[in-house]
Amino acid sequence: MASSAPRFPLGTGLAFANKYRGNDNVSLTYLGDGAANQGQVYRSFNMASCVSFRSSTSLKTSVRDGPPPLPRASATINLSQRGRSFDIPGEQIDGMDVRAGKAAGDKAVKWCRDGNGPIILEMLTYRYRGHSMSDPAKYRSKEEVDKVRTEHDPIETGAQPPVEAGLCERRLFEEDRCRSTRPHQRSGPNSPAATRSPIRPSSWSNVYAE
């Protein structure tokens, strides 16, 4: 589940439900580095470690994000080690590399299912634009952003192996990139969001009511 700090304990609650039911499900909870300083996160870490829940926390860190930048907001830059006081291991992953993210996710799920308790993955990413409309991202140069786009863009690095292996054509990735960057195709009556039903069969799973 995606989470801001106040909702983070829900991921721990799902892990508790899985343990109570005796299944092999793993609770995956995602949050950004801005939520990593909130108390709810550490109370959840403590509970997950004490009861040895099968839970994996994916913590997204924008390497050059703001305001404020990470060094000013956190005394510890390596956020993957935030679980050390709860005996929760952590690892930093290149979040701009699709294959590295997949491999780390598989490893984390296996760790949890083998009965080792929770684990933290810090995905190091790079935000191309500001955090919001109020963030013009003037703390970095256009040249810096263009360099990351050119040399370490996740779509490009993810596309290269299957193209080189002859599994697909590069034009398919280029067409998909064009579709995703055209504003008129992201909104309007004929957009995917408007024509595709938002209700999926799994939408009501794990939803409780009195």
Task: Explain what the structure shows.
The protein folds into 2 domains: 5-136, Thiamin diphosphate (ThDP)-binding fold, Pyr/PP domains (Rossmann fold); 153-195, no CATH class. Strand 3, helix 4 and strand 4 (119-125) form a beta-alpha-beta unit. By secondary structure, it is an alpha/beta fold. Helix 1 runs parallel beside helix 2. The longest helix has 16 residues, at 98-113. The protein is built from 9 helices and 4 strands.
TL;DR?
By secondary structure, the protein is an alpha/beta fold. The chain has helices spanning about 10-20, 40-50, 70-75, 100-115, 140-150, 155-165, 170-180, 185, 190-195; strands at about 25-30, 55-60, 90-95, 120-125.
Spatial order of the strands forming the largest sheet: 1-2-4-3
Integer count of domains: 2
**What is the CATH H-level superfamily of the largest domain?**
Thiamin diphosphate (ThDP)-binding fold, Pyr/PP domains
CATH architecture of the largest domain: 3-Layer(aba) Sandwich
Give the total of beta strands: 4
For this structure, the CATH topology of the largest domain is Rossmann fold
SS-derived structural category:
alpha/beta
Characterize the quaternary organization of these chains.
single chain
CATH class of the largest domain: Alpha Beta
Identify low-pLDDT runs.
Answer: 183-189
Portion of residues within helices:
40-55%
Gyration radius over CA: 19 Å
Look at the structure and give the mean pLDDT.
Answer: 80
Termini distance?
22 Å
For the sheet with most strands, the description reads: 4 strands, parallel
